[in-house]
Amino acid sequence: MKIFLDTANLEEIKKGASWGIVDGVTTNPSLIAKEGKPIEEQVRAICDIVDGDISAEVVATEFSAMLEEGRKLAKIHKNIIVKLPLIRDGVQACKALESEGIRTNVTLCFQAGQGLLVAKAGAYIISPFVGRIDDMGADGMILIHDLVKIYKNYGFKTQILAASLRTPNHVIEAAKAGAHIGTLPFKTLDSLFNHPLTDKGLDAFLKDYAKVFGTK
After folding, report:
1. Catalytic status, residue 78
2. Domain annotation for the chain: domains and CATH numbers
3. 122: Cβ–Cβ under 8 A, 6 or more apart, which residues?
4. Residue 71 burial (CB < 10 Å; 0-12/13-18/19+)?
5. pLDDT tens digit sequence for 2-24
6. Catalytic residue among 15, 72, 75, 83
7. What is the DSSP secondary structure assignment for residue 36, as one 8-state letter?
8. Model pTM above 0.70
9. Using CA atoms, how far apart are residues 216 and 175, in angstroms rounded to an integer?
10. H/E element holding 130?
């Protein structure tokens, strides 16, 4: 499973990229606004850090405006994936942009029927939201399993990007379910390293070595 960072913060992206495990980045209007920079400037800077798929989302909600904005975003860098909302005009724009060779990521997917429509429109990526479904008292991971099965049944090429992954367990379960990509905040990525037995074991190794050889 590819790992994407879900952030527009350059310091977080630089830190994650330095570990050699980040395959791409997803952004959205909220994350861009948090950084206080125009989207073109911020995603261009992100593309300079990570050589992988970088999702940049339109803010338009009408078909023709989405097309115009999507084409503009795609010109920023070869790695840009145009992110579109899963509404009627968004799916229509997905079909049109994909026919022009512009890759898309259709976001805000909350049920398998939506994911089926997006795959039929030829999206490069679909983004089902796990954590937000959990917030409503349901099991968001069921959606990942359903999409993996449906896409396999019909040979859809659309990649499933498990989004709103908030905990290490979310990441593990998404990988077990067969998601092609998991996107997660920097805090969640960082927490994947942690286990008390790892810390305890390393401490023991170093103490045992120091007893015999000493330390400088």
Report:
1. no
2. 2-190 (3.20.20.70)
3. 94, 95, 98, 99, 158
4. middle
5. 999 999 999 999 999 999 999 99
6. 83
7. T
8. yes
9. 43
10. helix 130-135
